[in-house]
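Extended Data, panel c. Modelled sequence:
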Amino acid sequence: MTSTTRLTVVDSATTLPPPERSDLTAADRPALIGPLDTIEVSVFGIPDLDREMQVDASGRIAMPLAGTIDASGKTAEELSRIVEKALKARYVRNPQVTINIKSSVSQVVTVDGQVTEPGLYPVTNQMTLMRIIASAKGLNEFARQDDVVILRTVGQRRMAGLYNIAQIRRGAYDDPPIYANDVIVVGDSPQRRMFRDFVSIAPLLAAPLIAVLQ
């Protein structure tokens, strides 16, 4: 983040909007398959086609009869239908394909700052700010609970939300959902300091501040 970055607060917003599908390279709700994820493929009645495989770095899988298929950015259900269509084209009668995501390295969120274990953490369909901080083993002893920033890309715009964990715990507002590719910074940071003027005008009491980075 450069020193020339400015904020435009979204007056009517009380939470960061969810990212659009085009903003994500790996995950959405429901989860999208991404490069290097591991999936399980089951074809009813044809056990020779059942297999566990890893999506390659370009987002593709290769299956007997079905050939090479672009899996990246698809849900498991969408990919199942694509594989079924490919098998039908190879004269497999009424294929019934089930695909599950066994493990994912593409659906992660970055947690940084005043947490016990900063790093990359996997995102589930029910992930929230409080849960992801718990995954990072909680706040450290120096953490400022009123200085938590979520950075997110929405429709190719960089947005930021300033949250107060103490207020979430008190029920002042909802625990916000977390999505793949979010960056969460706990404690004083360049992102937090950009909110300084807005906080001085309207202290963060019962609602988060949402802004577009310019």
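The first helix runs from residue 76 to 89. This feature is highlighted in the accompanying rendering.
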